[in-house]
Amino acid sequence: MVPAGFYRVNSGDTLTGIARAFGRDAVAIAHWNHLSADGALDAGQLLRVAPPAGVASAPAVLNARTPASPEPHTNATQSVAPIGKARLAWPVNGAVAAPFVAGKTKGIAIAAAAGEQVRAAASGRVVYAGGGIAAYGLLVIIKHDSHLLTAYANNRALLVKDGALVKKGQAIAELSSDSHGDASLHFEVRDGGKPVDPLNYLPKRP
Q1: Strand ranges (DSSP E) for 30-177?
Q2: CB-based contact 172:119 (threshold 8 Å)
Q3: DSSP-based helix, strand, coil % in the chain, nearest 5
Q4: φ, ψ for residue 19 (rounded to 5)?
Q5: What secondary structure letter does DSSP report for 203?
Q6: Domain boundary among 64, 86, 113
Q7: Bridge-partner residues for 148, per DSSP?
Q8: Neighbours of 104 (CB within 10 A)
Q9: What is the pLDDT of residues 113-145, one digit of tens each?
Q10: Residue 47's domain is classified under what CATH number?
Q11: pTM
Q12: Are residues 105 and 158 in the same domain?
């Protein structure tokens, strides 16, 4: 069992990818774990991804880009409205295959069809689109306001890139399938940097 505030490294993980997924600064994680200058990681390594007790947290990478700070060539008049609870949309059509369990899981699994398009749960800015964390497959992270972000994992193809502004309901990825042909989206909501139950932010289904 991995203790709270830690992450077990998988083969293919990168320090940058892990830092972005946890909303941390890669330099801070390297410092907390006394990593070498090149930030080399070993599969199975237990990595601290939260500041040690008594150490102030460094500014999160995901907080470094706010929706009000446009990327180059982006229309500066575009903005992202703050999002409150129960204002996210379901990213795929399917039943919850695995629920959120506080302290044990970071999100929910939503059953879907292989190749189904994954849609942004709300408007925002893509702060990560890549495969830097092996356990997540191809991953998209969207920042919606100063405290709320969503993450979409287990994809076979990404339809957006870092820095892109997306609208609620816009297709951002395509789901992959396992060896049995089954597919499910791993969906996370982080509020203030902490994983929370996505069902508290999604509309109830009949």
Answers
A1: 46-48, 96-98, 108-112, 117-119, 124-130, 138-143, 148-158, 165-166, 171-175
A2: yes
A3: 10, 30, 60
A4: -60, -45
A5: P
A6: 64
A7: 191
A8: 9
A9: 888 999 999 999 998 888 888 788 899 999 998
A10: 3.10.350.10
A11: 0.66
A12: yes
d(CA 142, CA 127): 6
Residue with tokens 């629920």: 99
Q: How buried is residue 40: exposed, middle or buried, by Cβ count under 10 Å (0-12/13-18/19+)?
A: exposed
Q: CA angle 150-151-155, nearest 5°? A: 145
Is 111 found in the same domain as 29? no
42 vs 206, residue with greater confidence: 42
Q: What is the mean pLDDT of residues 67-77?
A: 32
Token match 């150490």: residue?
55
Res. 26: pLDDT tops 80: yes
Encoding tokens for residue 74? 């982006």
3-state SS class at 106? coil
**Domain limits at 60?**
6-64
3-state secondary structure of 16: helix
Residue 42 tokens, joined = 């070993």
Query: Do residues 47 and 125 both lie within one domain?
Result: no
Q: Provide φ and ψ at 169, rounded to 5°.
A: 90, -5
- Say which residue, 151 or 27, is predicted with more confidence: 151
153 close to 136: Cβ distance less than 8 angstroms: yes
- CATH number for the domain spanning 115: value is 2.70.70.10
